[in-house]
Automatic annotation (TrEMBL):
One of its GO terms (molecular function) is alcohol-forming very long-chain fatty acyl-CoA reductase activity. Gene3D superfamilies: NAD(P)-binding Rossmann-like Domain. CDD domains: MupV_like_SDR_e. It comes from Bhargavaea cecembensis DSE10. It comes from the Bacteria. Pfam families: NAD_binding_4 (PF07993). GO terms for biological process: long-chain fatty-acyl-CoA metabolic process. This is Linear gramicidin synthase subunit D.
Amino acid sequence: MVKRIYFFTGFPGFLATRMIARLAEEEPESEFELLVHESAIPEAERVVQRLRGNKRTKRFRIHAGDITKTNLKLEKAVSEQLKETVTHVFHLAAIYDLAVHDRIAQSVNVTGTRNVNLWVLECKSIERYVYFSTAYVSGDRKGTIYENELALGQDFKNHYEKTKHDAEVLVQYMRDRIPTTIIRPGIVLGDSKTGETAKFDGPYFMMRYLDKFSRMPIPYVGKGEALINLVPVDYIVEATVYLSRHPVGEDKVYHLTDPNPYQAREAFRLIAQALTGKAPSFTMPHSTVRIMLSFPPLRKWVKVEKETLDYFRLEAVYDCTEAQRDLEPAGIKCPDFADYIPAAVEYYRLHRNDPAKLIEVV
């Protein structure tokens, strides 16, 4: 029976936790070394307890550390031992907030990735390095974006995109030295079957917006002709777990995006009907909504970051030919948005007042 030693950053984040749970179920002999920032250790311990269930096992080991520090701030003896045994490194830790300040994004996304890269290069048993990027490293590019493209002189809509681009550039340099798989997800929604998600950010800002206007005529935001690329978390997990272990995934970059994305206007209509029971009935200019959200009091009331609006005007199409081709033998496909959005909306409806899931808008 296969035994791998997995090293994760980004735990106890939702995506890392889901991935670890999937791997642990499929590989009962494998072990998991979890790098956790000191501030997140209490939550990490709770999540590990859930992963263990009723079993008395030491498969899941938490290590206090910090990707922004040299040697990941691991104790020297611990670090040296891990470098001898770890076979797979999953680097998911990052700042994903679209409104993040440059200094913080640089520290975590760029410096953090540089430090993880340096650590991985010293791992003697490494079989695969899996780095989580984003489809939006494409910045303001228009037209078809291919999986083998990265730095083509684009500008960026926010510090999140810029720093994730710069971090991926660093990882790209690793590809001829370490077996590497780069994952570029689209905008991630909750589980396609249960709707479960950890935070109501990203596309959930649309639902928070609708909450404020549900008792009055609902406006579309601009023409909404852009294709908005939404993908459920279970597709990301299933695809990544497969590609990270299969030889076909070595030295590849994958767009884990929807091959048949909906226009933003149609996606918004489906969400509005599922959440409020009615469709939008008129169009408010994009510029008007952006001006409104430029005022902090109004932005806090609506609970929507103004940076979210940029993705309603994105003139990019994310080609995912490589991902589709390599996932086809495993029968892994991205579900259709219209089929799973009712589950996402229902989960939001049940948990929208849960403070642990709300993202503060400033």
